[in-house]
Amino acid sequence: MSVPTVVVHRDADVLAKAVAARIITRLVDVQSAKGSASIVLTGGTVGLATLAAIAATPARDAVDWRRLDVWWGDERFLPTGDEERNETGARQALLDHVDVDPERVHVMSGPDAGMTAEESADAYATELRKAARPEDHGPVPRFDVMLLGLGPDTHVASLFPGMPALYDTRPVVAVHGSPKPPPTRISLTLPTIQAAREVWVVAAGAEKSGAVRMALSDSGPFQVPAAGARGRGRTLFLLDRAAAAKIPLELGRPSSP
Q1: 247 in Cβ contact with 216 (< 8 Å)
Q2: Is 226 helix (H, G, I), strand (E, B) or coil?
Q3: Residue 45 in contact with residue 204, Cβ under 8 Å?
Q4: Are 160 and 180 in contact (CB under 8 A)?
Q5: Following DSSP, what letter does each residue of 22-67 receive, concatenated?
Q6: Dihedral, CA atoms, 158, 163, 168, 170, nearest 10 degrees?
């Protein structure tokens, strides 16, 4: 796994715009090199602000949206169209505004699909397996970019400290009894997160500063899930100044104006 690089921006607004620019550049570079690209989306305030920033910039047209596979790191087990679903937010912020191929937008099914949470997780794992290529050497694709938010309790995706999902080695898992509502969710597991070529953890706000510090420490991922959020080739912690306030000085803090 890669060693995290920390990049700090002035505030949450600048952070969202900077991450949007990074995403566009990364997707264009990958598509130029191999024809298509893949991204894993996250929800949350900064995650959705980032998607909205992509939609708002003319640079978005540099991406060939028809040649992009869109996945999610986790989803609230709620019916399609529910305002609390990450998919709903992503569609409103970005996907409804670009020419994505509907067949390449891979959603996690809710109860309206007639599935239990476990069945939804299994169905998503099957979809991931079908998308994996021989060179991926595993049951999931090596995603080009995986975006992850970070909770004040150090959770990433829907992997919460000390919960059974952290020990699960399947690609996707149903989460019950989430300490953050709604209680039932679907989430990628740590092995799937760690299969990504690049993992970008995005966080803003002083309430995230303690979680950022722990995520960059030597803590184990079962107590601090974000400590396991590492990409195979690259890991970025993209932060605003408030979220970076408690980072140990020895880690360094590259900063933008």
Answers
A1: yes
A2: helix
A3: yes
A4: yes
A5: HHHHHHHHHHHHHS-EEEEE--HHHHHHHHHHHHHSGGGGGS-GGG
A6: -30
Per-residue model confidence (pLDDT) at position 1: 83
Q: What is the pTM of this model?
A: 0.95
Task: Calculate Rg over the CA atoms of the chain.
Answer: 17
Q: Shortest CA distance to 125 belongs to which of 146, 105, 106? A: 106
- Average pLDDT for residues 169-173, to the nearest whole number? 97
- What does the pLDDT average to over 118-130? 98
37: buried, middle or exposed (CB in 10 Å: 19+, 13-18, 0-12)? buried
Residue reference for tokens 């397996």:
129
Which pair of tokens denotes residue 221? 């991922």
- In whole angstroms, what is the distance from residue 222 CA to residue 214 CA? 12
3-class DSSP state of 200: strand
Nearest to 88 by CA among 107, 116, 65: 107
Cβ(255)–Cβ(26) under 8 Å? no
Q: What is the pLDDT of residues 12-60, one digit of tens each?
A: 999 999 999 999 999 999 999 999 999 999 999 999 999 999 999 999 9
Locate the DSSP E strands across the chain.
4-9, 37-41, 68-72, 74-76, 145-149, 172-175, 185-188, 198-203, 234-240
Report whether 64 contacts 24 (CB < 8 A): no
The DSSP bridge pattern shows strands 4-9 and 172-175 to be unpaired
